[in-house]
Sequence to fold (317 residues):
Amino acid sequence: MTNKNIFYNPVAMQSADPWVYRHSDSHYYFMRTTSNYLELIQSSRLSQIDKGTRKIIWSPEPGGRYSHHLWAPEIHFLNGRWYIYYTANDGGGDDSRRICVLENESPNPMEGEWVWKGAMNTPVPGLDGTVLMLRGQLYFLYAGYGHFPDYGSAIYMMRMSDPYSLTGDHVLLTAPTLTWEKQGGMAINEGPVTLQRNGRIFLVYSASTTWSEDYALGMLTMNEQDDPMLASSWTKSAEPVFRKSPNNGVYATGHNSFTSSPDGQEDWIVYHALPSPGADTALRATRVQKLGWNSDGTPDFGVPFSDNQALQVPSGE
Fold:
């Protein structure tokens, strides 16, 4: 008999760049990189996220400027409407990558029409767009390509005048200057995501290349009342906050999102990882585990659990 109170990782095989959003309708919405289309999965259970109702909600017109390499889609609910941010290009290299935006006015994102609102007009090409709402102002974060001084990507922030329009300054928040951010052949800071708790904002990002076993999570911390557009407002952790666990057979831990348990009492991290050093990136699988908190109010990510570790389902599930 199956014990519905426990589950095991991974929760979704061959599932890279996972994004999970828990909405007020009591559903989780799950997206991941599928390369040539966008799929949305609706589930009432985080521990069974890949077994929910699924729908292909966007297939770009073949041969178009943004019809190739659809990566890292994220769904957000902003100002009473649904938005999806995803990376795409024309089949070329890094210099042609942009973050595109879709909008849906339906209360249920599995219904209604997804409308293409365009590509974000970022000053440099990039990927992995996300948003932060702070004191009524919407901010856009993404990984932009460049030399820092090594070639790779860094995390930038801009203000938004609406969910698909950028305005004002372009601020560099973190660049890959530390040794652990430059593993695998490129210097990488990518996949920004924010977590607001305990009067602070934690900006978590992925560092090094996704095919490297040393792909790991770094973190910037800011006091909630400070100006996020000032790089000096953020303090960068000197070491990864979440990394591989050879003892548990989990490598290349990164490109995460955050969500909560159904009753809102627990915070959970969603991330992808590889089963062995040098494994094909097609084997990246989505994993979830509960997030702890330190006495000083900072997140305690712990270590990635092994595949044979029985985990308690989220509180309220």
About this structure: Residues 156 and 172 are 5 Å apart (CA to CA). The chain has a mean pLDDT of 97.
